[in-house]
Amino acid sequence: MSEVPAQQAVNQQPQQQQGQSGNRLAPKVEDLYLESYAFTTAAAIVGSVDRKIFVLLRDGRNLFGVLRTFDQFANLVIQDTVERIYLDDENSDGTKDKVRRYGEVYRGVFMIRGENVVMMGELDIDTEDDHLQGLEQLPFEVVEKELKERHARKVKEEKLRSKKLLSQGFVNDFVKSDMY
Amino acid sequence: MLPLYLLTSAKNQPILVELKNGETLNGELVNCDSWMNLTLNNVVQVSENGTNFLKLPECYVRGNHIKYMRLPEELMDYAKEQTLLNLEQRNRNQKRRTGGNFNNNRRNYNNQGNRNGGHNYRRNNNNNNK
Amino acid sequence: MDHNSNGGGSHQSGHTNNQRRRHNQSQKPDGPKREAILDLNKYTEKKIRVKFIGGRQIIGELKGFDQLMNLVLKNVEETLRDPEDDHVLTKEKRNYDLVVVRGPSLLTISPLDGSGEIENPFAQSTE
User: Fold this and answer.
1) What is the pLDDT averaged over residues C104-118?
2) B61 in any annotated domain
3) Looking at the partner chain, which of C8, C9, C26 has a beta carbon nearest the beta carbon of B85?
4) Overall domain count for chain B
């Protein structure tokens, strides 16, 4: 235990940690734990287990289901999942719709990789379907097709924009898979 | 049960994997590792636009490029069973050890203000301190 | 706090938990593995199809590999993609004699043997 004076000045705690005595560069065991776990992802999610949640993925999908389990990366396992696509007002020819449309399909058990989640939240099962009252439900395939067309158009637009901006020396930050 | 444990218990079951680029792989899960890399058998790969189909006897997929996976429903029942069994066993073991006295309620899965936010990270950290 | 908590079978007690387990009871579920799950030895000298992050696709003979899944391929043929749409493959190819593939940029690996294009296998028969 050489260099003890220097050590003790830095390290107020008595030598409880094993293998720490000569090695000032080793991580202190207390640094491995947080002061408070209240604001970790896990703490935020754990309250929603076995409850109905909604998840927004980076590709724009809305998933609704019961959260069963998760881990520190926010990988989620959701049961009885329903995928719903909302079509907002804009029509393909630029006109505005009178009524918003949506379509949904039952998917089953999902395991989502955490990095693809934009946001998630708990649903109140009593009021979760209230907002669907004023919307028109269409078959999922129809809605899916329309969404794909809108995406394709957006991608094309953005590609053109990127080119133009690039010619001026600007960079357009657009990732095709981020459609949320 | 953590997601990766659930995935490991899904071996030999059909699985649908969607990658970040929109391609889907439908096949039977052979193996998986802690990075979510997968090996699948009897795979049908569907391109992003849903028009091209490729049949592959085997495929290895990198975990970091997965968007999500869809698993069979029956798997959840199996997982629930397993968790219950383990819980029962642990309770039984603890009972034997402490003579029926659950003093500290350590095995409490229900996250009542647990300092670790409900997850026993300490288990992993103990190994690092040696 | 309770430093003894191991959240499961305690390793500290002298009696092993195995002795306590009944014959039919299941063990704690297997965790995910830490070693490589793909044995590339079985693909050496064979043609494999490799996809990259970013969309490139090649077919070549696997000559060597390492733990990080860097690969060495010979007689490689890259299938070029439509410049307009990254996902549409054209008939054009580009050939390379020797290629070293970086593990981190790999997306999928599959053997060429036994693979082929098929019609929609999910199509329902029309009513």
Assistant:
1) 90
2) yes
3) C26
4) 1
**Domain CATH code at residue B43:** 2.30.30.100
Q: Structure pTM?
A: 0.75
Interface test with C, best of B24, B55, B56 (most C CBs within 10 A): B56
- Counting Cα atoms < 13 Å in the Cβ hemisphere of C96 gives 16
The span from the CA of A31 to the CA of B43, in Å, is: 45
Q: Tell whether the torsion through CA atoms of A6, A11, A14 and A18 is positive or negative.
A: negative
| Fold (topology level) of C40-111 | SH3 type barrels. (2.30.30)
Distance (Å) from the alpha carbon of A74 to chain B's nearest alpha carbon: 10
Range of the domain at B53: 3-72
Do residues B57 and C113 make contact, with C-beta atoms less than 8 angstroms apart? yes
In a domain, B54, yes or no: yes
A41-139: CATH, from 3.40.220.10, 3.40.50.2300, 3.40.50.300, 2.30.30.100:
2.30.30.100
Whether B35 maps to a domain, the answer reads: yes
Rounded average pLDDT over C31-59: 87
> What pLDDT does B118 receive?
46
Chain A and chain B share a number of CB contacts under 8 A equal to 85
Separation in Å, CA of C99 to nearest CA in chain B: 19
Residues, chain B: 130
Helix H or strand E encompassing C72 = strand C71-81
- B101: in domain: no
**What ipTM was estimated for this complex?**
0.75
Which chains border C (3 or more CB–CB pairs < 8 Å)? Answer: B
Q: Which of A18, A107, A116 comes nearest B70 by C-beta?
A: A107
> Distance between CA atoms of B25 and C51, rounded to whole angstroms?
13
Q: Is the pLDDT of residue C16 over 70?
A: no
Say what percent of chain A tops pLDDT 70: 82
Segment A113-132, tens digit of pLDDT? 999 999 999 999 999 999 88
Interface of B with A (CB under 8 A): 1-4, 6-7, 20-22, 36, 63, 66-73, 75-76, 111, 114-119, 121-122, 125, 128-130
Mean pLDDT of chain A: 84
Q: Which two tokens stand for residue B43?
A: 């795979």
Give domain limits for chain C: 40-111
